[in-house]
Amino acid sequence: MSRPLRALIGPSILNSDLSKLYEESQKLLDNGADYLHLDVMDGHFVPNLTFGHPVVKCLRSKIKEAFFETHMMVSNPEQWIAPMADAGVDQYTFHIEPVPDIEKVCRKIKESGMKVGLALKPGTPLSDVEKYISIADMVLIMTVEPGFGGQKFMENQMPKVQWLREHYPSLNIEVDGGVGPSTIECCAKAGANMIVSGTAVIGAQDQAATIKLLRDTVQKSIQ
Ligand code: DX5
Ligand code: ZN
């Protein structure tokens, strides 16, 4: 049985002041974030490094309730499943591009008690992910090349979102990269319901109003 789709806003803390990770995260939640999108980069799959499970575990020790999604931009996602589950992650979203046995990784994530997200770089066609959609909880369509916050939104990824929504009406579809007040309409119309927003939320004068605007725009499209 499929549940009704919800508009969910998950700010990315990548471009926040990481020396205050807890304070920045708590502030986002107090301002209405539905979940936290934690960008994990290994310097191999993407040309940038962020943080790993020890940092996520520390954050979890201070924030007990919030839904944590880790966006694993790593070459070997299988390696980090157990430590991330132990750190208290709720959803493990990994890039399918470097993975030889996607089904096995999905199974291990589920066995460890986390939800599964499948992420696609802009150049990756939907045909690469289609046969795994039934075993996933979410598909992430990247709207920038993964690696850095603050890049320009790629509108040419919207046909992928549209196609997914048409064929999978109750699937959670996430967009990530360059999403904010000026691009949310486009994402909402295409059918995305889980919205990652970094720079636009972190740098907003009024975080709560920006998060609400994003959520309201998506919610209107869903109805
Ligand atoms: C990019 C990351 C994104 C990014 C979002 O590789 O996956 O989550 O930080 O930040 P903005 O919204 O600034 O593009
Ligand atoms: Zn991300």
From TrEMBL:
Keywords: Carbohydrate metabolism, Cobalt, Isomerase, Manganese, Metal-binding, Zinc. One of its GO terms (molecular function) is D-ribulose-phosphate 3-epimerase activity. Pfam families: Ribul_P_3_epim. The keyword Zinc applies. It comes from the Eukaryota. Its cofactor is Co(2+); Mn(2+); Fe(2+); Zn(2+). The active site is at D39 (proton acceptor), D176 (proton donor). It catalyses: D-ribulose 5-phosphate = D-xylulose 5-phosphate. It is an enzyme of class 5 (isomerase). Substrate binds at S12, H71, G147, F148, G149, G150, G178, G198, T199. Pathway: Carbohydrate degradation; pentose phosphate pathway; D-xylulose 5-phosphate from D-ribulose 5-phosphate (non-oxidative stage): step 1/1. The keyword Manganese applies. CDD domains: RPE (cd00429). GO terms for biological process: carbohydrate metabolic process; pentose-phosphate shunt. Its EC number is 5.1.3.1. Binds 1 divalent metal cation per subunit. Belongs to the ribulose-phosphate 3-epimerase family. NCBIfam families: PRK05581.1-4, rpe. This is Ribulose-phosphate 3-epimerase. It comes from Plutella xylostella (Diamondback moth).
